[in-house]
Amino acid sequence: MTPELKGYLLLSSIKVVVVFVALLLCVVVVTWMERRQAAFHQDRLGPNRVGPFGLFQPLADGLKNFVKEEVIPYQGDRTMFLLAPALMFMPSVVLFAVIPFASPLPISFDFTLPLIGQFTYDGALPMIVADLPIGILMILAISSISVYGIVLGGWASNSKYSFLGGLRSAAQMVSYEVALGLSVVAVLILAGDVTLPEIVAAQQNGLWYVFPLILGFILFIISSLAELNRMPFDLPEAESELVYGYHTEYSAMKFAMFPMGEYIALVTMSALMATLFFGGWDIPFTTWDDGNPTVLKTLATLSIFVFKTFAFIFTIIWIRWSLPRFRFDQLMGLGWKVLFPTALGYLMVIACGIWALESLGIEQGPLYGLILFGLNLPFLVLMFGVLDSGRLVTGQHQRRKAAN
Amino acid sequence: MAITVKVVRRPEEGVSYLRASLKGMGLAFKHLFRKKVTMQYPEETSEEDWTISTRWRGTHRMLTDEQGKPKCVACGLCPQICPANCIKLVPGEDEEGNRIPLVYEIDEFRCIFCGYCQEVCPEEAIHVGVHFENAEYQRDRFVYDLERLCGQTHTESSLWDPSDPKGE
User: What is the ipTM of this complex?
Assistant: First the structure.
């Protein structure tokens, strides 16, 4: 092995470990944040005893989960039962690999270790675990694996509640995956690339994609809520009707793996929203972060990225504690009758719009964004009207027609 | 009468789903900044919110006379009437020949706080009290001996509503 390759491998493994640990720390913070924020929405204080502001409460919960007794259902499928938490947990961790979380870090070293040999690296280290050429496609592919964790967990428990939870999640995640994928395609057309660093680079000129693709963003946030099994789409869990659905029968650390996987997926999806629509690690209203990489720039962009991510996490938790749960047919109706056709039609219009703008020779800039934003408006009005009347979601229109 | 089901139709005019949802989210956001209603109990206490009834029957106290001796004459009525059998009384005599309790213990775990002991006591010595903060670290601390019963300072229960003499 050449010293350059060894240096590259060393840095890559460090990045993997750092990102993994950071994600687990994020789980701690998000768990705490969810409980505190829920309490604040309800005029309570929430956990505030363990550590400063109760920040160590999730650690105490984790310790409790480690020492609790594990119960495995006697008549369940043991292998699948043990496999399901891992299947839930792993994909959500892997997803973060393709998300760039800061501007490149300039780094150079040259040292020799006994036995292993010389390590060298010189240049800007991209702050991304794996800059895969397939980028976002990998996210779409891997994120659907976690549905196996839920379905297997629900089935292997040999419990009716868990089984119903698994069924629901299968139907829900498969149908919302479509809308999720389609809403991303508009971003890919606009950026002309599927790798996330390129999408961030395309937004560096100040035009964040949330502006020209506002509807795409709305579709994305709705379907990612369904994808994450979060309120108002948390039908697989539905603690009030299914007793926490697919993980009813789980206990101790295996139970904790499910929420951990969910929280990591929540962090990843929020990071993805920030990356696709809010410029990733781009600092707004300045081009200071675009030039030559420095350590300061890396730190600044990293904190901006963390801020954006947590802003989305805040929003998702806020939605959870404001809205009631959908009924199952409403969920399916929203997915297939509203989001899917809207996303498809929207994609057509945006594609035509971008084609027309490029044939007219208009550069990407404020005018470009304004025209694309204008294309969003009729869709926005239409979707708002349809959803607000509740016609397609409740199905009451059809039922009344059938009754008469 | 047969059970009838009233079918409530969904409102068809003036319905709003998305607007109502957004309004709800706005309300939830406003609540983030409201004053929290949680009282941090062991550290914070509130006098005005916590007026409990004078009829509250809590842990016991033994009243004492002017010399600081318990008023109890060890007549044995309270262990007799106690339905939970939680009072242990060993009677005896002091130097002047007065009957005094040598041992007087109440097991507060067994006690059902019926207040019969207070009712039956001819000397108005034993009382149930207006008190509820009884936490201890050891189980055996819940057997109150005579010294501890005399040492309690909370007000004794009135058992009956003073304004309603019929109750007594």
Answer: 0.71
